[in-house]
Amino acid sequence: MRNETALGLAEAQGPWARVLRFVLYAALFMVFAGPLLALMVGAFTPTVDPTQFTLWPDRLSLDNLERAVDRNVLDYLLNSFLVVGGGLALQVLVSVFAGYALARKRFRGSAVVLVLILATMMLPEEVLAVPLSVLLADLPLLHVSLVGSLVGMIVPVAAWGFSILVMTEFMKEIPKELEESARLDGAGEFRVFWQVVLPLCRPALGVIGIFGFTMIWDQYMLPLLVATDPAQYTLPLALRSLRSDDQVGIGVLLVGAFLAMLPSVLAFLALQRSFIRGLTSGAVKG
């Protein structure tokens, strides 16, 4: 029986085919994972020439990490965790409630609301920078300035159109019979949402969790608008200031870049199963 690949081509057999596949996989690994491995090795290797990296270091050292700690890189890392923790919690909360309202409830103007949410995803950050800075300087109704605080970096990311759309479309696929059965058993609105609808949305929560974490973690424009003191910098913004400092060596920048990359990788590994189930939930119907 001949095995076929995803492209419908017959898989070649024999020793030369195995060698060819090994070479191909090794080349793909080097293309995609090589720069990340070079970054990790360079962060813990005394680097003199920034143009020379190796995947096999002669010796490992924590000198770069110690210098990075002296440059308050860990403080910037903590700020990033505070922003992404608060922002992601609010973003997931807003997404699930908004998705439930748009998917399970009927009201006039729901299509217009979805179009407006989609429109927010089409505007680049540079276009939103000026009005966003004005709003953060004088929050409507409350007349409070969020500039110069981590809260000013959390509030704007509390609602993201992508997460709301993902939750809305996923909740639309949940059979209404489950909801009706729960109501016949005497369940109220919140209980139906909490015990019936939300547990079935775990794959979608994994998707918005990974994408939301990455979006907030990689924010550069928002901290640039809000931060008024270097102590308020997040790690991506701090890397810019460290790069412009002539006294900072390449090793400190590599450590900062490695610390900026690591949480996103760990978040993906932690939510990988939910992420894959969320992407493939509509591919197979039984």
Automatic annotation (TrEMBL):
Keywords: Cell membrane, Membrane, Transmembrane, Transmembrane helix, Transport. It is found in: Cell membrane. The chain crosses the membrane at residues 22-44, 81-103, 110-134, 146-171, 192-217, 248-271. Residues 77-271 form the ABC transmembrane type-1 domain. InterPro entries: MetI-like, MetI-like_sf. It comes from the Bacteria. It is a multi-pass membrane protein. SUPFAM superfamilies: MetI-like. Belongs to the binding-protein-dependent transport system permease family. This is Carbohydrate ABC transporter permease. It comes from Streptomyces thermocarboxydus.
